């Protein structure tokens, strides 16, 4: 084999970042870490640098950068520390880089991910918020640069695996009737509405099947995660919102399905461990060991399915409405959700208020076209201001 592929891992200290590094470390002959980024937990970033010896590490600001650079030098490492969004964009687009794992959480990931797209890199996309915010511009940039876009989100990776290899655009052109997007239903699938009024951030983050960062864990509990994924699926697979059906599947063994016009339904199954989609995307179109245990169907024993309850999960309804409205609506939905979830994790709002905040923000701002990245960030900023106004008005 030729030289190892050079990989940049944006958001290396997070749940997806660490799983990615675990898979990479199993295949040193195939992959080498080019750059790692972290935002908090910088001592962990230092430990990752010691383990993977990247050429670059990126941190949010100059004081942290000097501290990390001193520590790296003391450890005898050649790693150079870069700062902020500019540093992230630099390591995402550097000529030496083959693939970029986009695993920063939230809107903060958009510019660095787009920088990687524009540089024509292979994109391993975990940062769904980037696509939700700017789907049209993002996909246009992918087409223009010829970048290979591979979904890491387990559902989208499953759909990708169940789609024909030559799929380019239009579900009907390849005989697909609909996409069945599975959802575990999260920790509150069966919690009564009365109890939901009082659930804590730790309860929301205690996902029954997946271990993930705190923001996406709350999104899973509210099912906003499935709403964001619905929008993500529409962009990745050129689908209309009405062609994507959400199916609650509490075991999280089937990661999504594709329903074809001849009656065939293809599914991808596996243990709920993100190293499977990560390994799939890293090695695509080949297959490599991911470290994930083989699926034991006898231990799983049964697979259940139910329809989602939009009464219990209003965020799913709001996301579907935003998907149908298009233009700026998904960016505003995403930004309002980021503010609401951060406030919930800080103990400033109650769980059920997350949906109230988002619904109010979406009702106050008209939907506008997003012609460029500035327009995306303007919509994002407006939604954040409106969500903050909700918090102020309610004394939070
Ligand atoms: P996480 O919170 O564990 O990690 C987030 C990473 O982003 C960390 O490295 C953090 O330092 C960095 N980060 C946070 N804010 C930042 C900022 N403002 N600027 C730069 N870097 C910043 O989150 P995660 O669970 O790993 O999720 C990462 C992304 O992957 C999210 O978009 C999430 O929706 C998506 N995703 C995660 C999973 C999962 O199983 N964890 C599954 C599917 C999709
Ligand atoms: Mg997912």
Number of domains: 3
What is the terminal-to-terminal distance?
57 Å
Number of helices: 17
Helix vs. strand class: alpha/beta
Can you give a write-up of this model?
The termini are far apart. The protein is 48% helix and 14% strand. The protein is globular. It has helices spanning 15-25, 42-52, 62-74, 84-93, 110-118, 128-145, 154-162, 193-196, 201-205, 214-222, 224-236, 275-283, 297-300, 314-325, 329-345, 351-364, 373-393; strands spanning 5-10, 31-37, 56-59, 80-83, 99-102, 122-125, 149-151, 176-183, 244-248, 254-260, 265-269. Helix 11 (224-236) runs parallel beside helix 14. It has 396 residues and is α/β, with parallel strands linked by helices. It has three domains: 5-151, NAD(P)-binding Rossmann-like Domain (Rossmann fold, 3-Layer(aba) Sandwich), CATH 3.40.50; 154-318, no CATH class; 326-396, Rna Polymerase Sigma Factor, Chain: A (Orthogonal Bundle). The structure holds nicotinamide-adenine-dinucleotide and magnesium ion. The site of magnesium ion (MG) has 4 residues, from helix 7. Magnesium ion binds at residues 153-155, 229.
Itemize the secondary structure elements and their pairings:
Layout: E1 5-10, H1 15-25, E2 31-37, H2 42-52, E3 56-59, H3 62-74, E4 80-83, H4 84-93, E5 99-102, H5 110-118, E6 122-125, H6 128-145, E7 149-151, H7 154-162, E8 176-183, H8 193-196, H9 201-205, H10 214-222, H11 224-236, E9 244-248, E10 254-260, E11 265-269, H12 275-283, H13 297-300, H14 314-325, H15 329-345, H16 351-364, H17 373-393
Parallel strand pairs: 1-2, 1-5, 2-3, 3-4, 5-6, 6-7, 8-9
Antiparallel strand pairs: 8-10, 10-11
Helix pairs in contact: 2-3, 4-5, 5-6, 6-11, 6-15, 10-15, 11-14, 14-16, 15-16, 15-17, 16-17
Nicotinamide-adenine-dinucleotide (NAD) binds at residues 11-17, 38-40, 103-105, 108, 126-129, 153, 210, 212-213, 215-216, 274.
